[in-house]
Design brief:
Blueprint (H helix, E strand, L loop, with lengths): L1 H16 L3 H13 L5 H20 L1 H8 L12 H15 L2 H4 L3
Helix pairs in contact: 1-2, 1-5, 3-4, 3-5, 4-5
């Protein structure tokens, strides 16, 4: 629940920052890693985002279920499938070795 809630908060901030997906991804990376994504990272994550969007748009009840975890209430008024897609994308970034390892 904690990681989902953290990812949802990060997604909310990225969605509020820009209407452009690449710029939103840069916000996520800057907040999580203190740097922007590489071209390869952007390619992989934006492709994943497109898949998550399609999945949540075809089954919005899954988006609602994911977003029900935790207590954080989003500040943006985006549809649940969009916020859920960004939440999963942010979870992916938050679960990378670079974020989790302190070496």
């Amino acid at each position: 629940v904690t990681y989902v809630e953290a990812a949802r908060s990060l997604a909310d901030k990225a969605l509020a920052a820009s209407p452009d997906d690449a710029a939103r991804l840069a916000v996520v990376y800057t907040r999580a890693l203190g740097r922007g994504p590489t071209a390869a990272e952007s390619t992989v994550l934006l492709a994943g985002l497109a898949k998550h969007r399609a999945r949540f748009q075809s089954a919005p009840e899954h988006a609602t279920k994911l977003l029900a975890n935790g207590e954080y209430k989003p500040t943006t008024a985006v549809p649940p499938p969009e916020l859920a897609a960004w939440t999963v994308t942010c979870l992916t970034v938050l679960n990378t070795d670079e974020v989790l390892t302190k070496e």
